[in-house]
Amino acid sequence: EYCFKDKQGKSLRQGRMHREWQTAMDIHKRAVIIGPRGHGKTVQFCQVRPLHELGIDPDLCIKLIGANDHQAMKRVKALRNHMERNLDLHRVFPHLKRHIHRGGRRPEDVSENSGEWNLGSLTVSGRKNWQQLDPSIQAKSVISSISGDRSDINIWDDGADRRNSVELPRMRTRIVEGVDDFINTLHPETGRAWSISTLWHEADLSHHFMKIWPTYWYEIVVNQLAEGGVSFGSYVRHAPDKDGFVYERHEDTPLWSYWNNERLLDRLNEIKMRKFMRGFGNKPMHQDEVHIDP
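Above: the chain's sequence. Below: its structure in token form.
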């Protein structure tokens, strides 16, 4: 919270679910988090966590895996901005800056093949292993070629999207089959892999992860009131938790103070129930559904 600020420049206050997500990554080498859209998933998994991990161990190699190259590269750009401009971050981790070669060129700045600026990777200073050739951060799409790569942490951030889960259903199988290629880049003992997403389709990448990894489920619940109108609650399920048990809780309040009842109601009225339940209630499309609205 000290290192991150909101749009008003105030310390970014984490919600209970954000702390639970970070704890899930602490205790599980593999985990999938299913959460509503707009609830800070990308900040927690693709900014807070990578910066924390590299601050502790600058020799790590982390892959950020998105639905497409553009999405993944946006995550790297955000990290680059923190490393160059976040003074609070530098007070905690002084070495957490982009590495610069003699002559002023950063090792990842120029593509080896084209000579163009490379926006898909970065390397931090302070590495102890001078033989480490892979960048600290790499952006990859879910269908990227990764031959010869290695990594310590793989993070899938919304690897499933409308295009690869709904509009092009054949891609679902290709993407799921590609998971093993990414897992194969990890160290067999210390490698870690996590996925964070909102559900799109019952056969998408996220559902594949839910079958094989511990699942942390978060949804907004819409309650119909007897006098008309609606109220919002939340449902959380961890299966299994750190002790191997299923944990559940139902609450009469939303998951996060930012998305309060007023904001949720405004969004529901604007996008209507089916769209709202997919994005906030994590109710995915079924196989027999043809049309989808974002």
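The first helix runs from residue 16 to 27.
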